[in-house]
Write a structure and sequence with these properties.
It is a single chain. The chain has two domains: about 25-225, 3-Layer(aba) Sandwich (Rossmann fold); about 235-305, Alpha-Beta Plaits. About 40% of the residues are buried. The strands form three sheets. Strands 5-6-7-3-8-9 form a six-stranded mixed beta sheet, sandwiched between helices. Strands 11-12-10-13 form a four-stranded antiparallel beta sheet, with helices on both faces. By secondary structure, the chain is an alpha/beta fold. The two termini are about 30 Å apart. α5 (about 130-140) runs antiparallel to α6 (about 150-165). The longest helix has 17 residues, at about 180-200. Helix content is about 35%, strand content about 30%.
Length: about 325
């Protein structure tokens, strides 16, 4: 279930877009090259403000590089990047509106949680100290213990608290939950969506745990081998991704000429995953005597980034 469908957040998506319909992050033909490796290859991307975006793709696809350039922690080889219409480099005003929580975020080992929250309060104009204090309790972090002795999961919790309590207009989380168990990850997702409903802002989640976060995402952006493969409203994408099952001859006749993601033979039957080009496509499948079912978002991303060139060309 998406934010817009949640009974606890009814109308949030519409409310947010009415409040501030603008662009939070935009890149134009963004390229980053390391020696002989192309980390980003002409990525043009626009993230609408006050929505929750999923930046999805395999490890090494270019997601972290993109976010690092967007937050002025790396320089692009070529192309342009804008945060709320401004170039981020040497731009204190633009960067004060951004919080980037990186994978394996590092903190001064002599600092305590209380020290980190005190520093964070000076960096983010919208910092909410009471929210940070509440989250520290909920994640069961010792306030006076030095971070040097923290586990991987505890360090991830520190980053999550800073990211949420920053209330930054653009908040980016890059695989923020390393070492967290399912209960702690669920707490993160719950607090994120609750606070987003009360304090709308632009949130980017870069993750491989797609099934866990799919209910949160309003827009999906898929990066593969440094290129933007797909960007679409999550609900629209869900409505387009589906499977058909039936006699192999009927399945093969139906999938001919359509956007096929994967086909598997099951004896005399076949199972295929597709991305619809028209709203009537699934009805046509049922009329042809085939069973249809939704394709989970996680499986869709797996198929899209499986390096099937036929699929990639069909999406271009």
């Amino acid at each position: 279930m998406s934010v817009k469908e949640s009974s606890n957040n009814k109308g949030v998506g519409t409310m947010v877009r009415d409040q501030r319909s603008t662009t939070a992050l935009e890149t134009v033909r963004l390229t980053k090259t390391y020696a002989n490796q192309q980390a980003l290859d002409g990525v043009s991307l626009r993230l609408e403000a006050n929505r929750i975006h999923g930046l999805l793709g395999r490890n090494g696809a270019g997601k972290t590089t993109l976010m690092s350039i967007a937050t002025a922690q790396l320089f692009a080889t070529s192309g342009e990047v804008r945060i709320f219409g401004q170039a981020p480099y040497e731009n204190r005003d633009a960067l004060s509106r951004v919080c980037f929580i990186k994978e394996s975020q590092r903190y001064p080992e002599v600092f305590t949680v209380s020290d980190m929250m005190a520093v964070a309060s000076t960096l983010y104009p919208n910092w909410d100290a009471s929210f940070a204090d509440r989250l520290t309790d909920e994640f069961r972090l010792p306030r006076r213990k030095k971070i040097k002795g923290f586990s991987r999961g505890m360090l991830s919790s520190v980053g999550i608290i800073i990211g949420l309590a920053s209330r930054a207009e653009l908040t980016l989380f890059d695989e923020p939950y390393l070492g967290l168990d399912a209960v702690a990850r669920g707490l993160f997702y719950d607090r994120l969506i609750e606070d987003y409903a009360e304090n709308p802002r632009t949130i980017v989640l870069s993750t491989h745990l797609i099934d866990e976060v799919s209910r949160l995402l309003e827009e999906v952006h898929v990066i593969d081998r440094g290129r933007l493969l797909l960007h679409e409203d999550t609900e629209l994408l869900r409505s387009r991704a589906y499977t058909v099952t039936g006699p192999a001859a009927k399945v093969d006749a139906f999938i001919n000429g359509r956007r096929l993601l994967r086909r598997e033979a099951l004896g005399g039957s076949a199972h295929a995953a597709l991305l619809a080009s028209s709203p009537s496509e699934q009805a046509e499948a049922r009329a042809a005597g085939l069973e249809t079912a939704p394709l989970p978002l996680q499986q869709l991303i797996v198929y899209l980034t499986g390096h099937n060139e036929t699929i990639r060309e069909g999406l271009a």
